[in-house]
Amino acid sequence: MEIDREDGRSQNQLRPLACSRNILHRAHGSASWSQGDTKVLAAVYGPKAGTKKNENPEKACIEVIWKPKTGQIGKLEKEYEMILKRTLQSICILTVNPNTTTSVMIQVVNDDGALLPSAINAACMALVDAGIPMRHLAVSICCCVARSGLVILDPTKLEEQKMKAFAYLVFPNSVHSVLPEGSPSVQGEPIENGIITSVTHGTMSVDDYFYCLERGRAASTKLSDFLRRNLQQQSTNSSKAG
Amino acid sequence: MGLPNASGDLSTEVEVDAFRRLFPLRFFEKHLLESIRPDARPLGRARDTTIALGAVASANGSALAKIGSTTMLAAIKMEVMTPSMETPDEGCIAIDFHMPPICSPIVRPGRPAEAAPVVAKQLSDTILSSGMINLKELSLVSGKAAWMAYLDIYCLDADGALFDAALLAAVAAFSHLEIPVVSLNDDGKIVLSEGQGLSDREPVNKEKRKVNLGSIPFSLTCILHKNHILADPTSEEESIMETFVTVVLDSSSQLVSLYKPGGPVLAYTSAIQDCIALTRQRVKELRKILEEAISGMEVD
Amino acid sequence: MAAKPGSAPTTYSPNVGQKNRPPIFKDNDLDWVRPDGRGFHQCRPAFFRTGAVNSASGSAYAELGNTKVIVSVFGPRESKKAMMYSDTGRLNCNVSYTTFATPVRGQGLDHKEFSSMLHKALEGAIMLETFPKTTVDVFALVLESGGSDLPVVISCASLALADAGIMMYDLVAAVSVACLGKNLVIDPILEEESFQDGSLMLTCMPSRYEVTQLTFTGEWSTPDINEAMQLCLDACKKLGKVMRTCLKDAASASQE
């Protein structure tokens, strides 16, 4: 049950993480996020007055604009925009600023696998930086299923292409404070086990998927510790986590 | 006594239709408490589904699928291309999904619906990664010519669960697809050989043939709302309760896609398991409906 | 993954180009038969059904031979924000083709003029003053093109308008005639249209015996025009009856 990874990581090992906030001066909030060689910039503008057509004016509206590294945006980018928008909508408290629009710009700096999860993490940090009211943070992770049924975490682009299937998973970060409604568990499961977003690619067995969930949850607690530590440091210097 | 009671519940004071429009969420929740939906379906039941094969004569394969009033027309047109250097013995499938302005009041001409490219991407991911079509079967002359199957799916009536209906129509169109008889002409181009007139040339594809379908993917979209799971939502339900889970399983019960794009409700393991179980049942139903449609064609 | 993003290989249809085929009739030959065996002055059997699209205010499906069309009507609804106030309602029409409608993929996209022609054909029949400030949208999709597409779209659109409850003076029926050499052929199919020397389309309100639109293209002599118009008027009258029956059937079915 061992798998050789090109960069010598173990199957559950993430690439070095780095995050810095408040890097752009004109944006209301910004963050850069990198996982190994994958690097994404996120900028938040808003809340601006008014919502777009076909949006509910009784809630705040979130708009996501995806800028690929090169070339024009196609169907893939449109899909990413939609997933990101819906994911951010579910973690933000939309009733605080009704009839406003918050724009989130994602600029891909380098894509080396796990691009969408990196963008979600970056967008989440940028929203915090902009002071947008949020329920909780979202932590996102990519799990790859190899043909042998083995699951590896945070794949590089090469690994993503080589593997038979992969899943992008987004979980809420673990809540430390006591919620007013009582214990933060639903249906006997802690709240951070709930899936905000799941996108899979390629075929896998149902058991593989649940195994992915398990591995993803374990990794997401590490990631959310990293997020929390990063947010607690008022300075913007980057820190590393394994 | 004419005043609404303390909880602000107007349900006994106003007409049903007015209540439905004013408080859509409460209207639905009142139904959910009784484990029933406004269209009289139990929560886990999908709407009536029909498939008609061969709806478009100008295409090589076509199908019309209806789930409730959501209607999808899928058609495949085969064209010839030069295969790429990396895969000289493989054809190609190009999938697109269209939402013309006729399908819904929110789509206007010149402004394509936001959902259309997303569904198109989901469809091509699902169909290509399910391995339903062996692309080697679409080869004609190795390295020289191969089939390009253009699959276009049009939404004629949008009433929720667009992806499910589109995938069903796409799968049905592939099962109706017949690859035409073609031969290589003197200019090195592939042309249709009609009748016996051109039989002096060796046909590249000897007889009309069907494509062998591997494991066929079927899908079911569910809404998660509080502790309830509603299968196969209508567009009204989709607009009120905003958490969707789309599960795609193939005939051998492999998971092709589990798609949950955000939404206010978190999906826990038990909910995911329930959605997968509902999809398993639905796959059986859909397989039967598709088989009946195919056998109906063979009788004619 | 077999998808090759970004690269769109050039493809061609294996269908033999129509120009290589022999013409379907020879000059001065009066004995040729139409490809579908109809008489020269015989229309294709028409099938209409209202209520094809649930999410629209009104809709209709029409099928004449291989020509298959769906029309949805939305409204009367709020006009675009940029529009000035108007005492009368507005009519907005759009005709589009599916990519698989034509024998060669994606050829039906160059029918931009159909939208404005549909608008002109319908506008005379609709009581626009009954819905001031608002817009009625008429959207048509040609599912399969089998010849005489525009006349079928127009007839189908008037049924969809009736289904939506938009006030009209009368239904609008439309028929076209193709001039092939010395012959006048009513309701031409795609193959005949590709060889025609001239074409004439007439849309009219059958019960009022009023013409809402008359277009002709190509070379016509005056006696031929007269004959063709008379042919169209007669055919429209019959088509109007079929459309009326369709509406009556739908109404009696909904009453039951």
UniProtKB/TrEMBL annotation, chain A:
InterPro entries: ExoRNase_PH_dom1, ExoRNase_PH_dom2_sf, PNPase/RNase_PH_dom_sf, Ribosomal_Su5_D2-typ_SF, RNase_PH. Gene3D superfamilies: GHMP Kinase, N-terminal domain. GO terms for molecular function: exonuclease activity; RNA binding. GO terms for cellular component: cytoplasmic exosome (RNase complex); nuclear exosome (RNase complex); nucleolus. Its main location: nucleus. It holds the Pfam family RNase_PH. It is found in: Nucleus, Nucleolus. Residues 13-133 form the Exoribonuclease phosphorolytic domain. One of its GO terms (biological process) is rRNA processing. Keywords: Exonuclease, Exosome, Hydrolase, Nuclease, Nucleus, RNA-binding, rRNA processing. Belongs to the RNase PH family. This is Exosome complex exonuclease RRP46 homolog.
UniProtKB/TrEMBL annotation, chain B:
GO terms for biological process: exonucleolytic trimming to generate mature 3'-end of 5.8S rRNA from tricistronic rRNA transcript (SSU-rRNA, 5.8S rRNA, LSU-rRNA); nuclear mRNA surveillance; nuclear polyadenylation-dependent rRNA catabolic process; rRNA catabolic process; TRAMP-dependent tRNA surveillance pathway; U1 snRNA 3'-end processing; U4 snRNA 3'-end processing; U5 snRNA 3'-end processing. GO terms for cellular component: cytoplasmic exosome (RNase complex); nuclear exosome (RNase complex); nucleolus. GO terms for molecular function: mRNA 3'-UTR AU-rich region binding. The keyword Ligase does not apply. CDD domains: RNase_PH_RRP43. Pfam families: RNase_PH (PF01138), RNase_PH_C (PF03725). Keywords: Cytoplasm, Exosome, Nucleus, RNA-binding, rRNA processing. Residues 46-180, 216-267 form the Exoribonuclease phosphorolytic domain. It comes from the Eukaryota. InterPro entries: ExoRNase_PH_dom1, ExoRNase_PH_dom2, ExoRNase_PH_dom2_sf, Exosome_comp_Rrp42_subfam, PNPase/RNase_PH_dom_sf, Ribosomal_Su5_D2-typ_SF, Rrp43. Its main location: cytoplasm. It is found in: Cytoplasm; Nucleus, Nucleolus. Belongs to the RNase PH family. This is Ribosomal RNA-processing protein 43. The lineage of its organism: Eukaryota, Viridiplantae, Streptophyta, Embryophyta, Tracheophyta.
From TrEMBL, chain C:
One of its GO terms (biological process) is nuclear mRNA surveillance. The keyword RNA-binding applies. It holds the Pfam family RNase_PH_C. Residues 42-166, 170-231 form the Exoribonuclease phosphorolytic domain. SUPFAM superfamilies: Ribonuclease PH domain 2-like, Ribosomal protein S5 domain 2-like. Gene3D superfamilies: GHMP Kinase, N-terminal domain. It is found in: Cytoplasm; Nucleus. Keywords: Cytoplasm, Exosome, Nucleus, RNA-binding, rRNA processing. Residues 8-18 have a biased composition (Polar residues). One of its GO terms (molecular function) is RNA binding. Its main location: cytoplasm. The keyword Cytoplasm applies. Residues 1-26 are annotated as: Disordered. One of its GO terms (cellular component) is nuclear exosome (RNase complex). Transmembrane segments: none annotated. InterPro entries: ExoRNase_PH_dom1 (IPR001247), ExoRNase_PH_dom2 (IPR015847), ExoRNase_PH_dom2_sf (IPR036345), PNPase/RNase_PH_dom_sf (IPR027408), Ribosomal_Su5_D2-typ_SF (IPR020568), RNase_PH (IPR050080). Belongs to the RNase PH family. This is RRP41 like.
